[in-house]
Amino acid sequence: MAEHKHGSMDTSEQEKTFNGFIRLTIWGAGISIGILVFLALVNA
Asked: What is the 3-state secondary structure (H, E, C) of the chain?
């Protein structure tokens, strides 16, 4: 079995995927909040 060296793995793809997920989540939350505010103003 090969020896594992802690910290030697290239994680650039995982970091890009995680950053994309966070960006998408923030945009989704912002759009959802915007829609809720719009609906509250229209129905008031």
From this structure: CCCCCCCCCCCHHHHHHHHHHHHHHHHHHHHHHHHHHHHHHHHC
